[in-house]
Input
Amino acid sequence: MDVLNSSGLAVWDVNRAKILLWLVIEQKGKQAFLDIDRNAKVEKAIQDAAMAKGIPLLLPLMDLEEKQAISVIDILAAKPDKILEASSRYDVATILSGKLVKKRTCWSSEWALHFNNKIERWTVSCTDLKTNLNNALQGVYEYLSVFYALRNEDSIIP
Output
């Protein structure tokens, strides 16, 4: 810990708030919300990437109430009002919405992070699924670490 203190590097506290993830998957021209039963491979890749980055993700229930409150089109259009309204039942400060597209030999994605009354957007070019999701969650980590990281002067580490 002394090395971290003397380096001046930021340390992101291990107590991290959950991030709600709304994800639309496009395969063979069809778009649908992530369904862990039909998209187990994608769901596992997301959870693995989140764990590797130390990002606690929360997936929406996608019950009848949510299916009436938000649509695939709302996510694809990145409509903040609809996304925030549908997310209100989860009491989260951070919401990640995205579109993951399966192309012939790779996956591409587009992301929007709703945090602190701002929206940060980025894309990840066509790569294998694991790399794509790791890069996507690296974007989340980089953006949030600016807000959540403790710097040496903020630290209570002796």
Summary: The two ends are 9 Å apart (CA to CA). The helical segments are 2-7, 40-53, 64-69, 72-76, 80-87, 129-148. The longest strand covers residues 118-127. The domain at 2-148 is CATH 3.30.160.100 (Double Stranded RNA Binding Domain).
